[in-house]
Amino acid sequence: MVFSILTRAGDSASIPCLATDPGVVNLSLEPCHGGALPTGLHYVASLERGMVIFDTQKAFEGCYICTGRLGSAHVKSHQYDLNVRPGKITLFVCDAVWASYPQQPAVENASRILTDPIKHVRSARLYINSVRARDSGRYRCEGQNEKGINSESIWLDVYDRGFIHLTPSDNGTVRVRAGESLSLHVDMEAYPKPHTFTWSFSGQQLRNTSDHVITTQNHQHRYNIVLRLVRLKMSESGVYTFYASNGDASVNQSFSVYVISKPEIVSHEGPVDGQVRCVAKGYPFYGILCASPNINSLLASQKPKYQIQWKVIEGIHGNNYVYIDPTQLPYDHQWEFPRDKLRFGKTLGSGAFGKVVEATAYGMSKADTVMTVAVKMLKPSAHATEKEALMSELKVLSYLGNHMNIVNLLGACTVGGPTLVITEYCCFGDLLNFLRRKRETFFCSKLGDDCYYRNVMLQRGTATAGDSRNGYVDMRPSVTGGSSSEPDVVSEMLHEDGLSLDTEDLLSFSYQVAKGMDFLASKNCIHRDLAARNILLTQGRVAKICDFGLARDITTDSNYVVKGNARLPVKWMSPESIFECVYTFESDVWSYGILLCEIFSLGSSPYPGIPVDSKFYKMIKEGYRMDAPEFAPSEMYEIMRSCWEADPFKRPSFSKVVERIEKQLSDTTKHVGHSHLTCLCTHNANVLRLNSVGSGNASTQPLLASASDDVFLEEMGTRLRVHRV
């Protein structure tokens, strides 16, 4: 094996032949093919640094090895090929110019004399041979005569190695219609001047032709290189790569070009052995359909790899639901928002074909407003079916309208680029991870006389049995920019809302989700994947229902189990959904009962310790139901059990669930307020209960505290006391 060492004349060169055994002695440098070292070559050998050659010259070029002795054995290193480039010669030219005007001659009548000033130039030149880094600095040229002194200066930057810096491209993927022309731009800064500029397509270098025009412009060390593709054809779809090199550095930049064209049948063969072969080309990718009029069936060559979970029902005939095709829903272009008014931030969630990105929107509601939003988009790997699904999701959100307890649509970008769906940004992330982060500060206030501050941290080893963080979307911005499985409790609380979690908060989340689901039901919409991972929290602990299917990789999420040819959230599904593939309002109610179990166990997985296998399916068929979660009031467990009725028509509607939890909120607020006055040992009428839940008849969810109330928390042993200031 031969290693290459590159250096410049006059610099030191390091040959890293480090000894792997400290017992090696008599280290020396030798030419690979024997003989003496070049005249004037001086070096220093060490076990730690290898060989360092000083003041390298062009004559030192060649192949070298390091040798030594280990005990009685003669040992040697790999071969090193030393390449010495001549040092750069830098020339500074300083020209001093001055003018001398002779005495004006006399002028006779009827004559005219033309005169020019006589210029004097003196030039001084500074040569620096083999420029090194230590020669960097400011150089000044100064001229002086009887009229005075004048000077000019110049700054010299010396780099150890040349460089090429590419300006990042914002458009690495380009879509263009067949017959249109396209220009691909590359901007870069380089020193020394690159000796190689090339464009290639599918591994073949492109030359200047009438179809591919390459132009280069430069100013000092900046370069702009343009490849113009004229009247693109379908066959010219692919990856175009730019490459540049100047000897010291090399760079490349690629562009994926998709030429949009209508489908074209390339070949059609058969039938042979009962099979028909049909080959077509075109972009975007499409499904090839084979129609059989005899059996009136339709088979598609490709199945969508992602579909929106939310379904809008057109009609109900007995047990059969007729769904509206979301692609047929209208889209109001008043939702359109300018792309150039979005500034993208970090990725909040990512799946196989899509992702959700935090962004800043300028002028979303008014011309001068700035708003943080979440933007759902597709990845370049997405298929045409995923693009159709994202557009369907946009249409469904537009159809539903706004509600406080769903993630509302704010705008969209559907023209001039890939589809972007702009929704509300929920700063506290998904409910599942929020509950898990708040376990350590949970304040248990169950009905009864057991009012106490409970430190769930002591139960951390058992409370999370069966949990999995795999695949959950956490939109909560990171405090440090990194991640930690054991975040600091105080910093987490300060970052989120500064408050602990209590039973009333759990009731509030349950109530809000029921309100949101009641709204969806009123719009004839079923969710099909209701779970804590699909509930987001925002300011004031407002819960919002969403569908993050596109931005979650279900192939790596243990909550989605392979069943048939699909991955399904089996532990959240009703028996009729599992065994009959039936999804209804009532199956959503079953899933809501599982969600309640997640909430009142502070984020534990349902059916803890029970794998999804044949035994699990048998247990569900035989009527097995989970026990009450540890922190669930008895009334809430009764609601869970009613949601898990085997007969779907015996399950309560979401409007009934809302009514039942409203009673819990009202009763609990009165009870807990009185209990706190007692168990905090205070009779001050100004004691305030920090609460994220309002009265049952409130039209919107209340805030955590009134804006006019200043409060502080004082720790008292195992209790918290709240005073009005």
From TrEMBL:
Boundaries of every Ig-like domain copy: 168-258
Pfam families: Ig_3, PK_Tyr_Ser-Thr
SUPFAM superfamilies: Immunoglobulin, Protein kinase-like (PK-like)
Main location group: membrane
Transmembrane domains' residue ranges: none
Active site as annotated: 529 (proton acceptor)
Annotated localization: Cell membrane; Membrane
Residues binding ATP: 349-356, 376, 424-430, 533
One Gene Ontology CC term in the entry: plasma membrane
Keywords annotated in UniProt: ATP-binding, Cell membrane, Disulfide bond, Glycoprotein, Immunoglobulin domain, Kinase, Magnesium, Membrane, Metal-binding, Nucleotide-binding, Phosphoprotein, Receptor, Repeat, Signal, Transferase, Transmembrane, Transmembrane helix, Tyrosine-protein kinase, Ubl conjugation
Record membrane topology: Single-pass type I membrane protein
Coiled-coil residues: none
E.C. code: 2.7.10.1
GO biological process, one term: hematopoietic progenitor cell differentiation
One Gene Ontology term of the molecular function aspect: metal ion binding
Keyword Nuclease found: no
Domain of life (superkingdom): Eukaryota
Binding site for Mg(2+): 321, 534, 547
Family label: Belongs to the protein kinase superfamily. Tyr protein kinase family. CSF-1/PDGF receptor subfamily.
Protein's name in the database: receptor protein-tyrosine kinase
UniProt organism field: Oncorhynchus tshawytscha
